[in-house]
Structure formats: structure tokens, C-alpha cells
Design brief:
It is a multi-pass membrane protein. By secondary structure, the protein is an alpha+beta fold. The protein has 23 helices and 13 strands. β5 and β6 form a beta hairpin. It is flat, with a radius of gyration of 44 Å.
């Protein structure tokens, strides 16, 4: 094949080969790196019997795993700081892995230390802020209490006249002062408690002290940062007075249980002022220190951000290389690594060049060797797709990956899938809306491909070209149906029909007459709105669905012939392809022929009657249902062929397979007589094992199931294609209902407000029901027709994908 890459061929997967690489240890790393850049070699694991810790490069993987952990830590810290890794073009300067490891260790240690110091300073700052709030609120309480006590004392002194009255205190201050045993000493605790716990806090205090405590709470206006959690919490300042050590201990335990932070408070006014001054100064100093630490941390994260992508790509690349190297095995000399893997045949020259370049650049003493291995193992399936074909190939692969080099339905799916969708979705107004929405994704694909999209948006973006084709085909079928939001237009000329008189009074009773040639393209617009519109379109779409279904099923059977011919399987041609073609076309191919003849001749024959009595009364006269001469004889021949094709599919193939197997077994036994006794015994035991593996009963039952499945499937699959008619009719009727019962109804009220409401409802219904739900419904039905009705005729789908070792980013894979 000339050139670096052959022309893309989607019909059959790329020819693959199993190759063995023998690489010197000193050039192994570079070799795997260059193969990863090439992205065309799938390594096989030759060390499946070893655990990950027993492999050659376990230490290197552990090292790069630790480096990857540090990078994830950096990314988390940048996310918390509101930074995103730079995606601008970065310099691809060579970075020494050992230097990077040391640098990452230093950066992590520095960042961890900055975080720890920052947390300590932030906690201290939060505690000082709470202490300041407590000093202010409790100071206000003590000041107010002292003012009230002084005023009360003066009031009592002014009222005393030397004579005892009812208001005279029983114990004078002098008496209490002279007798210390009569004085009551009260202690107090103050602090902050979360506001949502304040009521429970008060009740528990009352019950624990049996009412022998005085609690005062004041709400803090703004939420405060809690020193323990670092989150903003609404809190209350509390002040509780108690008597005795026992009560104090209880209150301390209750404060601890409710997460209440306690702070000291001095009753001395001068001392209060001094403490407030010290706290304010400490807060200012801490704020300055915290800001300096945050600035330093921000600069450090900015430095990491600028190089993060480069470091991350390097670490991921190195880790992937060593994971791959662990799949290679050491040879007996311990100087070379031996690897096996699959690659496309066209990539052989590129792989050889990569090996030679790696050996040259690593100054290895021994060259690398590549040799093709012969194996009976089924190779992986590799289709080279682009951004347009990849989505269609994914639709096929979702059902099952193609067997190696079998015919790929993806080639035909590119056209048939959007076309069958459009048959169900045919409206060129809706198609234009779908096209405009898709063009947004297509025209902005470079910008959107580099962004992180939501799950649904990502899915729509990935299938943008599928939806584009669906929209274009919907416009095409909409023009055939002559529907624009259910409204017909005379785009291709005047109607072929006209009224019998000028005022069209008898149009609904007598009907129209044909005055000119047929409408040149699609359905004549005069059909829309008539009494016979629904019967006419029903008949048209139902027959069209059968024609499309029989054509696609025939295509599937024809592809089974190309598969059998490609794999040199004559049995499948003679005893699968031929009888299947005869059976399908004897019944439903004949039905398709009748539909075309009826359209061509304009006959009034009843096709249901013809097909039913083809089985119930094959010798009866067709009478007025005859479409062409010799139809009776043709029906009898076709029915006989259909009946003969069933045992043709069922019986010969199992017996011929058994005969082929016995002949192969016998032949091998005779040829081994010329060899040594030992090899003869080995081959004989091998042949007997193969012979035992062939079970005629299993093969016959499998063929019986396959035959029954095809015979019944021919009927059910043809009926299944009637979903094209049903969904097309539903889409057309829904569109008509929204137009007539919403838009035209609102227009008829001659009211601007009602008209605006009607337009809004019409747009919402059209977008929500017809452009979203109907699109999804038609998509799923088209998917089913391809997976079940089309692909089961030829597609095995039991292969496995080719997953080469590659450094190509996922986003650039389809470019």
C-alpha cells in the first residue's frame, strides 16, 4: 500500500497482524513512548500470572502514582482558590522526571505548611473576633447593670427619713459588710453559643442547676466565623451567673456539649479597656499576617497553575509507559524485553521506524527486532473513522462490535439511519428547526470540543453530524409529504386538480377533477384538508413502509452473501443466502411487486385478499383482483418456492458440516502415519478432542432455531417496518392539531393577548412535543429497525475493538 496511510475503508475492518517485539532494555522506555505517540499498537499482557507488585517496573509506577497524587492535591487547592489549570499553549521544554519529583515534594511541603499555618492563624483570628464581641456585649451588660444598681441605691437613700418604713431594707449595707458570712459570692461564665441551640442550652442550664443560675443572652447581628469549623454561624452571646463550684462544673460540661466557646471577662473597668485594646491590636496584627500568607499562597498556586498541565501530562504519560512496560516479559538473558501485540498491516513500516529511532536515540548496543507471528486467534476490529463517521460507527458498535473483517453496517447506516428517521419525522419546517439547532454545534465545534459540557449536551454534541443528516433528510421527506408545520405549499407548481365550478360549492360532495399533469414532486397540496386525505396518506405511507422494509432486508441478505464469499464459506451461500432470498422475495418481494404494479396501473385490486388467498386458496381464480396476466401461475410457483426454501435452509447444512468434519478428521489421521510414533499419538489425541467437540445434535438444533427465526422473522420484521407509517402519521396529526386547534383557534378570536398566548403555546408544544419527544421517539424506532430488522440478516457482532496504546487526547481522537 502506498503512502503512510491507505484510503479509509469502512466496509471491512483494517487487516491486522500479531507481531512480536524484542527490544533492548536501555531503549524500551523510548520505544514504548514512540509507539504511544504513533497510537497504532495494542500490547498483550504477557505477565498475567504476576501480581502488580511482582512486575518489573512496580517501583516506578508507585513513584509516578505518588507524583500523580501530589498533582491531584495541587488541583484541589487551585479549585478551592478559584483557579483553573492554564490551557494556553505551554512550552514543551524537556523536563527531567527526577527534578520534577523533587520539585513536587518541595511544593507540596511548602503548600501543606502554608495551609497549616493559615488554618492556625485563621482559628486564632476567629477566636479573637469572638472574644472582642463577648467583651463588647458583656461589658454593655455589666455597665447597664451597674448603672441600674447605682440609680436604685440613690433612690433608696433619698427616700430614707430616719424612720423605718415598709420599703426600708431589712439588712443594711453596713450590717452585711460587718458580717462576711451573710455575703453571697456569685461567679459567672460568658461566651458564644450557636443560635439554633440557644433555647435548648437555656433549658438544660435551668434543669441542671435547678433554677439556681441566671442566664442572659444577646443576639449577634452578623454571622461569625466559628474557630472549630471555619464556617459562618449565627450565634448568641451568653452570660450565666452561678453560685458554687458544683454548679460551675455542670455549666462547663453543658457548654462543651453544646459547642459553646467560653471567653474570660474582667469586672474591673480599667482592666476591660486594657484587654479590649490588646485584642484589637492582636486582630490587626493577625489580619496583616493572614493577608501576607494568602498572598504568598496565591503566588505559589499561580506558579503551579502555569505549569500544571505540562506536569500532569508528563506524569500521566510516564505512568502509562511503565504500565505498558510491565506487560512485556524479560528474555532469558535479562537484557531484552519481549512484547506481543496487534497492529494494522499498514502500520508495520511506521512501527519499524519508531523502533529504529528509539534504538538510535538511546545509544543501545543491540537493535530492536519485529517479527510477525502466525496465530489462529481472532484479531481485534479496527475501523479508522473521522469526526463525521465516528458517531454512525458508535451506533453500530452499541449493538455489537463487528467480527474481524465482516461487512460493516456502519457504511449503510450513514444513509439509511437518517433516512428512516426522516420517513417518520417528515416535515420540512421541523427539519429546518432541527437543522438550525444542529448548526450551532457544528459551526462552534472547535470551541465546544475544548469545554466541559453536561451529560446530555455532550451526547448531543457527539452525535451532531447524525442529527445534521437527520435534519437534512427530514427536509427532503417533508417536501415529499408537502408539510411545513402541517401546512401544504405549492412550491413546485400548481395543483393537478380543480373544482368543477368556479365557486367550488360542490367540492366537498362531488369532488375535484384533474385538469393538468400530476404534481411534479411529492404529494399534491390539494389533498390536505380533504375528506380523503387520511385514507390516501395512510395507503401511501403504509405501502411505502413495506417497500422500504423489504428493500433494506434484501440488502441485509445480500451482505450475508458478500460475507460468505469473503470468508470462502460456500455452505452459507448455497444453504443460507439463496433460500433466504427465495423465501423473502417469494412472499414479501411479490407483495412489493404488487404494490408497484397497482400504483402503475391504477388498479382497484385488494392486495389483502390476494395475499391471504395465495395461502388459503392458491388454485382459486383471482377474478377482479388480477393485476396482470399469468398472476395465478406465478403465485403458485412462488408459494412452492417459499415452501421448498424452508427445508433447504434447515436440512443440508448440518449434514454437510458433519461430513466435512469427518473428512478433515480422517485426512489428518492418514497423513500422520508417515511421521514418528510420538507425533502421531499427539496428533491423534488432538484430532479425537476436536472430533468430540463437534456435536451434530447441537449443530442441528442451532440450524433449526436459525431457520425458524428467519421464517417467523420475515413476517414480523416486515410488519415491524409499519412503524414508519404509524409514526409518520402520528407526527403529521400532532402537527396538524397544534396548528389548527392552537394557532388558528387563537387567531380566530381577533384578540392580541389571546393571539400572543396562542403563539407561545404553539411554540412550546412544537418544541417540547414535536422537536424533542418525537425526535427521540423516531430516533429510537430507527435504531431498532437497524439493530433488529436489518443487522440480524448478516451481522454477527461478536468481535472486540482495537484499543491501541496511545497518548492522543480523547478530544482529538476523531480529528
Amino acid at each position: 500500500m502506498g503512502g503512510c496511510c491507505p484510503p479509509m475503508d469502512l466496509l471491512r475492518s483494517e487487516p491486522m497482524q500479531l507481531v512480536q517485539l524484542i527490544v533492548p532494555i536501555e531503549s524500551a522506555h523510548l520505544t514504548v513512548s514512540y509507539l504511544g505517540d504513533l497510537g497504532l499498537f495494542q500490547f498483550k499482557d504477557l505477565n498475567t500470572d504476576k501480581s502488580p507488585f511482582q512486575r518489573t517496573y512496580a517501583a516506578q509506577i508507585k513513584k509516578f502514582g505518588e507524583m500523580a497524587r501530589k498533582l491531584r492535591f495541587f488541583k484541589d487547592q487551585m479549585t478551592k482558590a478559584g483557579l483553573t489549570p492554564s490551557i494556553k499553549s505551554i512550552s514543551r521544554a524537556d523536563i527531567n522526571v527526577d527534578d520534577l519529583e523533587i520539585k513536587l515534594v518541595e511544593l507540596e511541603a511548602e503548600l501543606v505548611e502554608l495551609n497549616a499555618n493559615g488554618e492556625k492563624l485563621q482559628r486564632a483570628y476567629s477566636e479573637l473576633m469572638e472574644s472582642k464581641i463577648v467583651l463588647q456585649k458583656v461589658g454593655e451588660f455589666f455597665h447597664a447593670a451597674q448603672s441600674r444598681a447605682t440609680a436604685r441605691h440613690r433612690e433608696i437613700e433619698s427616700q430614707s427619713t430616719g424612720e423605718d418604713s415598709i420599703n426600708t431594707p431589712l439588712l443594711r449595707d453596713q450590717e452585711m459588710a460587718s458580717d462576711p458570712s451573710k455575703q453571697i459570692k456569685l461567679g459567672f461564665l460568658c461566651g458564644l453559643v450557636p443560635r439554633d441551640k440557644s433555647m435548648a442550652f437555656e433549658r438544660i442550664l435551668f434543669r441542671a442547676t435547678r433554677g439556681n443560675a441566671f442566664l442572659r443572652q444577646v443576639e449577634v447581628e452578623d454571622p461569625v466565623v466559628d474557630p472549630a469549623s471555619g464556617e459562618k454561624v449565627e450565634k448568641n452571646v451568653f452570660l450565666v451567673f452561678y453560685s458554687g463550684e458544683r454548679a460551675k462544673n455542670k455549666i462547663l460540661k453543658i457548654c462543651e456539649a453544646f459547642g459553646a466557646n467560653r471567653y474570660s471577662f474582667d469586672e474591673d473597668l480599667g482592666r476591660q479597656t486594657q484587654v479590649m485594646s490588646d485584642v484589637t491590636w492582636s486582630i490587626t496584627e493577625l489580619k496583616t499576617t493572614i493577608d501576607a500568607g494568602l498572598l504568598h499562597r496565591g503566588n505559589l498556586l499561580q506558579t503551579i497553575r502555569d505549569q500544571f498541565e505540562q506536569w500532569n501530562q508528563l506524569v500521566r504519560k510516564e505512568k502509562a509507559i511503565y504500565h505498558t512496560l510491565n506487560m512485556l516479559s524479560l528474555d532469558v538473558t535479562k537484557k531484552c524485553l519481549v512484547g506481543e501485540g496487534w497492529c494494522p498491516v499498514f502500520a508495520t513500516k511506521q512501527i519499524q521506524e519508531a523502533l529504529q529511532r528509539a534504538v538510535f536515540e538511546s545509544n543501545a548496543q543491540v537493535g530492536a527486532i519485529i517479527q510477525v507471528l502466525h496465530t489462529k486467534e481472532m484479531p481485534p476490529t479496527f475501523f479508522r473513522t473521522n469526526k463525521f463517521t465516528s458517531a454512525f460507527q458508535e451506533i453500530v458498535d452499541a449493538y455489537g462490535v463487528a467480527r474481524y473483517q465482516e461487512a460493516n453496517p456502519g457504511v449503510y447506516t450513514i444513509i439509511t439511519f437518517p433516512f428512516l428517521f426522516a420517513v417518520m419525522f417528515g416535515d420540512w419546517g421541523h427539519g429546518i428547526c432541527l437543522l438550525l439547532a444542529t448548526l450551532v454545534f457544528v459551526l462552534r465545534e472547535k470551541k465546544l470540543s475544548g469545554q466541559k459540557l453536561g451529560d446530555i449536551t455532550e451526547m448531543i454534541f457527539g452525535g451532531r453530524y447524525v442529527i445534521l443528516m437527520m435534519a437534512l433528510f427530514s427536509i427532503y421527506t417533508g417536501l415529499i409529504y408537502n408539510e411545513f408545520f402541517s401546512v401544504p405549499f405549492k412550491l413546485f407548481g400548481p395543483s393537478a386538480y380543480a373544482c368543477r365550478d368556479l365557486d367550488c360549492k360542490d367540492a366537498s360532495t362531488v369532488g375535484l377533477i384533474k385538469v393538468r399533469d400530476a404534481y411534479p414532486f411529492g404529494v399534491d397540496p390539494v389533498w390536505h384538508g380533504t375528506r380523503t386525505e387520511l385514507p390516501f396518506l395512510n395507503s401511501l405511507k403504509m405501502k411505502m413502509s413495506i417497500l422500504l422494509g423489504v428493500a433494506q432486508m434484501n440488502l441485509g441478505i445480500i451482505l450475508s452473501y458478500f460475507n460468505a464469499n469473503f470468508f470462502k464459506n460456500g455452505l452459507n451461500i448455497w444453504f443460507q443466502f439463496i433460500p433466504q432470498m427465495i423465501f423473502l422475495n417469494s412472499l414479501f418481494g411479490y407483495l412489493s411487486l404488487l404494490i408497484i404494479v397497482k400504483w402503475w396501473t391504477g388498479s382497484q385490486a385488494d392486495l389483502y385478499h390476494i395475499m391471504i388467498y395465495m395461502f388459503l386458496g392458491p388454485t382459486e381464480d383471482l377474478g377482479e383482483n388480477r393485476l396482470f396476466p399469468g398472476q395465478d401461475r406465478l403465485q403458485q410457483v412462488l408459494l412452492l418456492l417459499a415452501l421448498v426454501s424452508v427445508p433447504w435452509m434447515l436440512l443440508p447444512k448440518p449434514f454437510l458440516l458433519k461430513k466435512q468434519h469427518e473428512k478433515r478428521h480422517q485426512g489428518h489421521s492418514y497423513t500422520q502415519l508417515e511421521t514418528t510414533d510420538e507425533s502421531f499419538q499427539l496428533e491423534q489425541s488432538h484430532d479425537s478432542h476436536v472430533h468430540e467437540e463437534f456435536q451434530f445434535g447441537e449443530v442441528f438444533v442451532h440450524q433449526l432455531i436459525h431457520t425458524i427465526e428467519f421464517v417467523l422473522g420475515a413476517v414480523s420484521n416486515t410488519a415491524s417496518y409499519l412503524r414508519l407509517w404509524a409514526l409518520s402519521l402520528a407526527h403529521s396529526e400532532l402537527s396538524s392539531v397544534f396548528y389548527e386547534k392552537v394557532l388558528l383557534l387563537a387567531w380566530g378570536f381577533n384578540n392580541v393577548i389571546i393571539l400572543i398566548i396562542g403563539i407561545i403555546v404553539f411554540i412550546a408544544a412544537t418544541v417540547g412535543v414535536l422537536l424533542v419527544m418525537e425526535t427521540l421517539s423516531a430516533f429510537l424506532h430507527a435504531l431498532r429497525l437497524h439493530w433488529v430488522e436489518f443487522q440480524n440478516k448478516f451481522y454477527e457482532g461478536d468481535g472486540y475493538k482495537f484499543f491501541p496504546f496511545s497518548f492522543i487526547p480523547v478530544g482529538d481522537e476523531n480529528e
